[in-house]
Structures are given as structure tokens and as C-alpha cells.
Amino acid sequence: LALADLKITETTWQLNQKRQELEAKLLGYWQEYQLRRDQVNLAGEMVANYQTLLQVEQTKFQLGESSVFLLNSRQQKLLEAQLKLLKAQAELQKAAVSLQWVVGEA
Question: Which residue ranges make up each domain of the chain?
Fold first, then answer.
């Protein structure tokens, strides 16, 4: 009887340890998801800002107050920002799948 009680206690401890490990993993994946979501939002704002800068530069170019070099520079910065946004969106999707996996939905 004492051996059975000891085995039950050991199993309970193991279960609690697994539960804590799972909770820690879940918290980690949730924080990763939130971080990636914030990065997507920030990258989206950067794209919008670079689009505005490009539009302003195009207007200045039409008025003769800018150069092709500056226009190309603005276009390149916009493309770089769009690429960063796409990468951030991909990382967000990976984080979402990981989060779903840890809660058993994937």
C-alpha cells in the first residue's frame, strides 16, 4: 500500500512537471507570436512611409526639384521595406503554426 501511494505521488509530480513544461512552452510560443505580430505591424508602417516618400519624390522630380538617383533610391528603399514585410509575415505564420501545434490544434 505504501509503495502504491509512493508511485501515485511520483506520477503526480511527473504530471505536474509536464504540465509546467507545457505551460512554459505555450507562454514562449505566445510571446513569439506577439513579437512577430508587432514586427509585421511595424514593417507595414514602414512600407506605407516609404510609399509616401516615393510619391513625394516623384512629385519633386516632375517639378524638376529632384534627380533620377533620388527617385531610384526611394524606390529601392520601398522594395527593401516590402521584402522585410513579407519576411515578417512569413515569420508570423510560422509562429502561429507553432502556437497551434503546442495547443494541439495543428
Answer: 2-103
Walk along the chain (106 residues) and give the pLDDT tens digit of each residue. Answer: 789 999 999 999 999 999 999 999 999 999 999 999 999 999 999 999 999 999 999 999 999 999 999 999 999 999 999 999 999 999 999 999 999 998 887 5
CATH 3.30.70 for domain 2-103, yes or no, is no
Q: Can you read off the three cell numbers belonging to residue 46?
A: 514602414
0.70 exceeded by the pTM? yes
Q: What are the phi and psi torsion angles at 66 (to 5°)? A: -140, 175
